[in-house]
Design a protein that fits this description.
The protein contains 3 helices and 27 strands. With 380 residues, the chain is mainly beta. The strands form 6 sheets. Strands 14-15-16-17-18-19-20 form a 7-stranded antiparallel β-sheet, with no helix packed on it. The protein has a 4-stranded antiparallel β-sheet with strand order 1-27-26-25, with no helix packed on it. A 4-stranded antiparallel β-sheet has the order 2-3-4-5, with no helix packed on it. The chain is globular. The N terminus is likely disordered.
């Protein structure tokens, strides 16, 4: 009987020992009934990431660098662009979702892209030694053809049916401003040009074509207009140095970035009417960092920071000698009121804004960041 009692106590001791070991090793890793078990749902987490991304004030639109200025398709609410990597063509939704390739032909040597309004027709510019060659393509019809040699500046009319271009005749050493169909037919010389580097833009809602010598700090910029049927050009403005221009959609006024004189260091914005009346806005930025609202009452603009003190503006910026750190604003030109459209705390990285454009409903402002050449949007 005594042996049985001793054996029972030994077995009880062994049982209690192993029970203690179990509690210490295993039960600590088992959650108590009062602590809920947290399970991860990959799909839910991804949705939360998308919601968080869409709440950001500035967000990327393209996953890859772009070349030229993208085009906003108002009908389909999409953005179309050429890839800077290989010249293929891509489309992305207005909010930056569903990026997809729409043309897989790789274009070697692609230098620039010029879209016609509507987003179907495009002229691409290719490097050709020290010069350029141009090619027309219709994405809807999937047809294209090369443009004639001798072109080095080109622009579309507002309707997307005609092109304007500067033509150099090597035999006569003359430069002329011309208009024609994209295939070169029905061409007409509008006026003779003196400068090699000239910029061209139709004055919206008019039959006038404006042109000016490329902005350089030490040169006065003439700003002229000529009728698209030909005739004698008339001067709009000529007393600003390094000037560049951007017409309002109503064609009644243009935005001007320029230097007050050849010794000025800072480019500032002003307004000019089609009659040549100039008003200073005192905003230190370039028109390449601006876009007009559809009603021609508001200007959205990026204000550049970190411009080197020794920089010659606008030359050094145009020649990519530095990049800027931009903040984002708008001004009502009727009241003069200026407002931030992005708070400082919402700018998480550096942006050097270029090639600005708006969505159809003006809910988004887009720009190409010169630092990485990708498209970004700002929620307005």
């Amino acid at each position: 009987m005594k042996k049985v009692l001793i054996i029972s106590l030994v077995l009880l001791g062994i049982t209690l020992f192993f029970l203690g070991v179990y509690n210490f090793v295993f039960k600590k890793s088992t959650p108590s009934s009062s602590e809920p078990i947290v399970q991860t749902d990959p799909e839910k987490n991804e949705q939360e990431k998308i919601i968080q991304k869409k709440s950001e004030k500035i967000m990327p639109v393209s996953k890859q660098p772009v070349i030229g200025k993208p085009i906003f398709d108002k009908k389909n609410e999409t953005i179309t662009y050429y890839s800077a990597k290989d010249g293929t063509v891509w489309s992305v939704q207005a909010d930056g979702s569903k990026e997809s390739q729409i043309a897989d032909t790789e274009l070697a040597g692609l230098k620039n892209v010029f879209w016609a309004n509507g987003g179907e027709k495009v002229i691409t510019e290719f490097k050709k030694g020290n010069n350029s060659s141009f090619y027309f393509y219709n994405h809807k019809e999937k047809k294209g053809f090369p443009l004639k040699d001798g072109l080095d500046t080109i622009a579309w009319d507002s309707a997307g049916t005609k092109i304007f271009y500067k033509y150099y005749d090597a035999s006569s050493n003359k430069r002329t401003l011309n208009i024609s169909n994209p295939d070169g037919s029905e061409w007409q010389s509008l006026t003779e040009l003196i400068d090699r580097d000239v910029l061209i833009a139709q004055i919206p809602s008019t039959s006038l074509l404006s042109f000016w010598n490329a902005p350089k700090a030490r040169e006065k910029t003439y700003f002229k207009a000529v009728d698209m049927t030909g005739g004698e050009p008339h001067l709009i403005l000529s007393n600003r140095f390094g000037a560049d221009y951007l017409w309002a959609p109503n064609g009644k006024q243009a935005l001007v970035s320029s230097l007050a004189n050849s010794e000025s260091k800072m480019v500032t914005l002003g307004l000019i009417t089609s009659e040549g009346n100039y008003t200073e806005l005192n905003i230190p930025t370039l028109v390449s960092k601006c876009i007009w609202s559809n009603d021609s009452k508001t200007i959205y603009y990026a204000l550049p920071g970190d411009i080197p003190g020794e920089a010659i503006m606008p030359d050094d910026y145009q020649n990519n000698k530095f990049t800027t750190k931009d903040t984002f604003w708008k001004i009502n030109i009727e009241t003069g009121k200026k407002e931030r459209i992005v708070e400082i705390n919402d700018i998480a990285k550096d942006y050097d804004s270029d090639r600005l454009f708006l969505s159809a409903n003006q809910g988004y402002l887009y720009f190409v960041n010169r630092i990485d050449e990708k498209i970004y949007l700002i929620r307005l």
